[in-house]
Amino acid sequence: MLNPSTAKAVIDHALFLGADFAELFVEHHQSNSVQLISGEIDKINSGIDFGIGIRLFFGFKVLYGYTNSTDEEELKRVTSLLAAKDKRDQIVNAGSLNLNRFTNKHSCQLPLSQDANMAAKIAFLRQADEAARAENEKISQFIGNIGQREQQIEIFNSEGLHIGDTRHYTRISANAVAQNGSEQSTGYEAPGAFTGWEFNSKVDPKQLGQDVAKQAMVKLFADACPSGEMPVIIGNGFGGVIFHEACGHLLETTSVAKKASVFYDKMGETIANSVVNAVDDGTMVNEWGSINIDDEGMETQRTQLIKDGKLTSFMVDRMGGMKTGFAPTGSGRRQSYKFAPTSRMRNTFIEPGDSSLDDMLAGVERGIYAKKMGGGSVQPGTGEFNFAVQEAYLVENGKITKPLKSATLISTGPKVLKEISMVGNDFALAAGMCGSVSGSVPTTVGQAALKVDNILVGGGN
C-alpha cells in the first residue's frame, strides 16, 4: 500500500529530526452492513477508508498524527509538525527495511472484498426475524444486523520492521422486544468471528431468533430482583464481561504504567482465589478478538495473566514496556490509523474449572443465578463496577426457582476475584467491542459459570 522507499525516507526524516523511534501504520479499511427492522431492510451501508498514522518517540514522549496521503513530501511535512517542539537535528538513518513474514492461522473463504453476499445476508436476517416473531405473539419488534469488514494493514518502523496483514471480521446481532401493555423487555445476542461470511454456517438464524425472543419473554413476566449481599452464580460466555471490564483493564500497561491500577505493584502476589486462572490469548483460531500481529507489528501470543490466583503477567505494548520494564506481549492495538496504539485485550477469559452448575447451585440457600450479563459501568483505576444482568433467576435451597428482572451486580474487580470459590466446566466465549484511549477494538470475553460467594445485588425490591 505504501512504497517501502517512501516509508524509509519518512522514517529517516523523523530520525534526522531527533526521534528515538519512528513508525508508520498504513491502513485500508472496507466495511459493509445490512440492517433489518420491522421485517424490512432498513439500511445497507458500505464504506472505504484509507490513511497513514505516524508515531514518534522522544524518550517517553509519544507524538502522533495521521494523513490520507501517500505522498512522501506530505508525510515528511506531518512528521516535521509532530517533531517541531522536540526537534534536534542529527545525522541518523534507519537500517534497511526487511519484509517480515508469519503464518496466518485464520482462514477466510468469503472475504468482503470478493463478494458482499448481500442476498444471503438479507435471507439470514429474514429467517431470524420470522423465528423470533413465531416464538410468541408478544414479540413486538425484531432488529437484526450483519456487519462485515476487511482491514489491510502495513507497518514500517525505524528498527527495520516491514510487515503487513489482512484481517477479516464478521458479526451478526439480533435484538427482540417483547411487550405486554406498557411493559417492555428485550433479548440480545451478537456472535462474531475473525473470518469471512462463511461464519454464518455456524449460526442458525432460526435458533438465533428464538433465543433472543425467549430472553425477552423470560423478563417480561419476571418478578423484581431482591436486593442485598448474597451468593451469585455468574453464567458462562458473556459473564466474562465482568472480568474484562473490572479486572482486565487494570492489567493493561495503559493503566499500570501510570500507577492508575490497583495491581500495578502486585506482580507475583495472590490477587484472586486459587481457583482463578485468567488468560489473554490472541492466537485462538478465528476467534473475534484474535490477530496474527498486533498494531505495532509484533506477532501475538497467549498471555497467562493469573495462575492459581497469583498475578503472573500484564498486557504490554511497546511504550508500556519501556515505562514498566516488562516485555511486550503483542497487545498493542488501535481502532484505526487515526489512533496511536496502546496495550489492549484480545480474547480474555477465566479458564474452566471442574465444577458443574449443579455443584455450584447446591451450596446456595438463597441467591441469584445471573445466566446472562448485560452492560454496565466501571470506575477506571479501582475496578468498581455496576453491571446489569440480562437474564437472572432466583436460587432457593440449591434450586433455580423463578425468573427475575432489574438485577444489578455491584462490587470491585479486586474484591470479586477473591470471592470466586468455584469455577465451572461449561466454558464459552462471547464477542464484544472494547473502547479505550486507542479507540474501539474487537475483543472476546469468556468463562465457564462461576460462583461468587458474596456480592452486592441491586434489584427492584
Strand content: 35-45%
Number of beta-strand segments? 24
Structural class determined from secondary elements: alpha+beta
Stretches where pLDDT is under 50 for at least 5 consecutive residues are none
What is the gyration radius calculated from CA atoms?
Answer: 24 Å
Shape descriptor: globular
Discrete helix count: 9
Into which percent range does the helicity of residues fall?
Answer: 10-25%
Largest sheet: 8 strands, mixed
The average pLDDT score comes to 96
Distance between the termini: 59 Å
Keywords: Hydrolase, Metalloprotease, Protease
Pfam families: PmbA_TldD_1st, PmbA_TldD_2nd, PmbA_TldD_3rd
Family: Belongs to the peptidase U62 family.
Protein name: TldD/PmbA family protein
